[in-house]
Write the structure tokens for this entry.
Amino acid sequence: MAIATTSQTLHDGVRNVIMQFTGISDGSGQEAAVVKVDVSEMTPPCDRVKILKLTHDVNGGVVTLSWAADTPVVFAQLSGQNETCYRFQGGLQNNADESRTGDILLSTEGFELDSSYTIKLEMVKKFD
């Protein structure tokens, strides 16, 4: 089974979207560049998102979040518990090159039996 995951859309409005992701490992594998935020699946679909707030609780490993592109761009490596607010900087924005898709990828590293994560992203939809 590897990592049992859930992805929830808590709010999907015209401008704002809030999503939460959870995973718990059975010790048999990792997640590798899994699309967790797919901008084409939002209502309405958008071109990309900017992150206003990132809250995480990662136990027993490291979760890497990346902007999807031909060469993904890492923007966060998460472990432990933290809440990061990007509102005062205008939001954390996708700085990948023109090959960017607007999606967000998740990978895990070092997840053993009972390692887990809960991640909540509060985002604003961007339309190019």
The first strand starts at residue 3 and ends at 12.
